[in-house]
Amino acid sequence: YAMLLSLIFLIVLVAAVVGFVFRHEIKTNFESNLNLALRDYNVTADRHSEAVDTIQRTLHCCGVQNYSDWERTEYFSQRGIPRSCCKSQDDCSEEDLKDLSKAKLKVFVDGCFFLVTSTMESKMSIVAGISFGIACFQV
Length: 139
Fold this sequence. Notes:
This protein has 139 residues and is mainly α.
């Protein structure tokens, strides 16, 4: 029983250290994957496209750095900016979404990368506190 608790304690400790040491690589990797998801975005029920839509709707953001990131995608040339970027679904026409100057008034202008990373960093203290609590309980 003591060995099992020691093993769990070590796993929690190693996970915390690895997460702290490699946090910059995690950010870089997330940004490149978000860029890939935007590039390959489509209307079909693709997991990556659904994830992008969910992030944009939940965090009220659009694109990686800002809404103009969509201009470099194939999806933009066909349909414009996705509807998941719209501030109001009722006031967002396809013509507005195809024109960046009109879209600026109708969509969220902030990028998702900064919002996701800042949300993750703000929740890290909670995760660290819970991990510390579990480790103290085990000791």
